[in-house]
Amino acid sequence: MDGKLDKADDHLSEKKLVKAKSAPRARQKERWQNLHSHLDQALNQWNDITEQMQDELSPDQKRLQEVKQLLTQLKVKLEEF
Fold it and tell me: Burial code of 23-41, b = ≥16 C-beta within 10 A, e = fewer?
């Protein structure tokens, strides 16, 4: 009967060993998934910000557009004159 108990103890020890080895792998996989998720969120946020910034003009670009509009208006008035 002691032989059966020894085999049962060995079997339990093997299970514990397998769990002990797989636990770090599971944590590693979870960390990689978290990292991937955070990088994905950062990339999406970066894309959103760059799209918003493309729509906004710098102060110099705004002034340039105003000057262009004024020149266009002046041209139209000169043609009428």
Answer: eeeeeeeeeeeeeeeeeee
CA atoms within 13 A on the CB side of 43: 6
pTM, rounded to two decimals:
0.45
pLDDT digits (tens, 9 = 90+) for 37-53: 899 999 999 988 888 87
Rounded CA-CA distance 64/14 in Å is 76
Query: To which residue do tokens 């955070």 refer?
Result: 38
Cβ neighbours of residue 65 closer than 8 Å, sequence gap 6 or more = 57
